[in-house]
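INPUT
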Amino acid sequence: MAELPIIKLEDVSIAYNGQTVLADVNLTIPKGKLALFVGPNGAGKTTLLRAIVGLVPIRSGRIVTPFKRSRPAYVPQQKTIDPLYPVSVRRIVQMGLHWQLGWWRRPDRQARAQIDQVLQWLGLADHVNKVFAELSGGTRQKVLLVRALVSGAEVLVLDEPTSELDERSEQEVLKYLRLVCTEQSKTVLLALHGVAVATSIADLVCQVEHRRVQMQQPACHKLHKTGFQTCTQ
Amino acid sequence: MHAIDLIRQFPYAVATGLIIATVCSILGVFVILKRVVFIGIALSEVAACGIAASLMLGLNPSVGAVAVTLMAVALLAYPYELRRIARDAVLGIVFVAASSASLILVWRSGFGLAEVKSVLYGDLILAGPADLRLIICILGPIGLMYLAFVRPILDSFLDRDASYVMGLRPAIWEWLYFILLGLAVAMASKIAGSILVFCYLVVCPAMGLIVSKRFWVVVSISAICAVIGTMAGLFAAFRWDLPANQTACLACCAILVIATAVMPIWRRIMAASIWQGNNGGSHA
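OUTPUT
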């Protein structure tokens, strides 16, 4: 049976200030897959992800997404949250529930339990009432990841969500993302620098380089289905 | 001479001052967090420019202040983070243009300088029943709307990109906040003067941020500081025959200075008591 595409890019070109960053990108990402975007600095990984979620306008082509009926969850690459803001981890995570709650309602018991469960999974249960700005860089990244995970979004767009994590935490996070794909049929678009570990869990690897995107099969494709394993080919 | 005498003699000034203090100080929390401190003084000057233009044209000064301030807000609410020019620079340009224009308009109006100055920059102690009514009608709904919409406004300011992707419309919430701020500053500056409004927008929220790292506590402390500063300032002005606006500003600044000095000591005492408690617990 053919896999149902959830995101489709047809001849997409993106330009900044008249300069082409990506040209003629054709990409199909099926539902429930983990797509890894790799490439050198400045290749356009972030631009591509931002275009997919609608933060960057495209110059030509077409991006087909289900985001009008089901919003994606997004973890940006940069440190976007100003440390001046006096907000707790819980408040940041609750932002992820906006699509379900709207701007008025407070999370019910079920939603709070869901938040606690994901926080527990990523080892953040003790941080829930702490001030976000006082956490380490890695812990802040995990909090933003939790915000994306609790949102219930079908598609998670994660731009280098493990760049400030230590090796062990990175493996835990990637394992969790693999699990989210396999068990909850969520589609994950993940931009990463350290590809050695990540290719072992990805279904698709998209090489972004020289203004082009090339789709490849991951090197250790057969290993990923049961969860995170080290590539041993 | 007691505070009760002040309330008896200047009931409208006290009530008007307290409403302006509360609303401007809670709005000011985002002025500090968004790092647009200069917006307070720039919008005050814009409002003064609107009043001066209204005097020239024979219109209602409040209408002129609101109209010109809303035009400036439309310009300032644009997300300058994405452009070459920073919002601070735009604020500076708006401030210079508005303050120059208001002086030129005053010069051409034919009114006496002292008269125009009092109309342009206001004096809280002179607030009358009409001012109180105006402030209740405008600042009351502004304060309530702000409290009702504070969550999406906070989310939009906190992480613009993520909130956009999640389906929140950050541009709309930012515009709403700046419109509420612009209206509040335009109305309050006319009655309480630009410096006092600027003080409520900056000094009181700064006090809140020094004392706490919880958003709602910061908002509450900001309002409490503004209310205490206003009452203390008005009382001192009444008692020693001082200018009310400036005395209230100084009172707010004094509270801020005291808080800045006391908070580190308070935190050290709290940390020591927690440490002692933990130590005692482990021995037991």
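end of record. Residues 9 and 27 of chain A are 5 Å apart (CA to CA).
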